[in-house]
Automatic annotation (TrEMBL):
InterPro entries per UniProt: BphY/WalK/GraS-like, HATPase_C_sf, HATPase_dom, His_kinase_dom, HisK_dim/P_dom, HisK_dim/P_sf
Catalytic activity: ATP + protein L-histidine = ADP + protein N-phospho-L-histidine
Keywords: Kinase, Membrane, Phosphoprotein, Transferase, Transmembrane, Transmembrane helix, Two-component regulatory system
EC number(s) from the headed UniProt entry: 2.7.13.3
Organism: Arcobacter caeni
Protein name according to UniProt: histidine kinase
GO CC terms, sorted: plasma membrane
Top-level taxonomy: Bacteria, Pseudomonadati, Campylobacterota, Epsilonproteobacteria, Campylobacterales
Amino acid sequence: MNSKKRDFLISISIIFTFSLIIILYLNYFFISLFGLNQENFIYIIMPLVLVGLGIFLSFSMSVLKPLFKSDEKLEQSLKETIHELNIPVSTIKMNTQLLQKTITDEKSIKRLDRIAQASNNLLKLYENMEYNIKKEIDKIDKQEFYLDEIIFKSCDKFDDIKKDTKIVVKIPNILILSDINGFEKTMDNLISNAIKYNIKDNPIVEISYQSPILSIFNTGEQIDTKNLFIVFDKYFQEDSSKDGFGLGLALVKEFCDKNKIAINIDTLEKGNRFNLNLKNIIK
């Protein structure tokens, strides 16, 4: 337990105990003064409950304010730091693009390509960090985007690693209103898993949409029925020989739950199919 959580729990416990002592004393005073019977019970107890709640809230606000203020300062500091990180990365990327237009030497071009790739990776890390901070403080803005564009964008990311996997996309031009970064990460994780857990001979990934269900199917070994209930748990891996930490599907489930997207798995004769019900985010 970190110090902030410990301080919070200690502060709340002290405030609660202090408020309880005051209420018990007032309760004793009024009972001694007026007695306690069915006629005056509600007139004594209800005001005391309200007074106790008022005392608890009043002391809570004054005592816990410094804790909340420190969180606000930390949040602001992180935002400013991340913003400052974006400036040098964008500068490197812009100057690299300018140099690529003027340099013709093959070795120099390769070096510039590596610099460009590194700057793109840094920019992606920046975007991920910014998104994760916004997600933690629950300030993600929803945006309109087209389902097919996000799917094709995610598929393009795996051109270098899909090898012989055939990816078939049958997605109409559907307008979605949601957290675009979170949705894209969800698609990345599902497509990545579909490629990773595929068969060796003629592997296929099929992405289709039949209103309002988005389905991602891959040929491969069926998910064991007993694992269907835990496949979305953090660190779970049905095949431990595969690369990864077992976090991808946990992140998928977290996003779907937060955005009211029902998700389920069909185990079929030739593979597995993940189904996402998008009815709550279709524009």
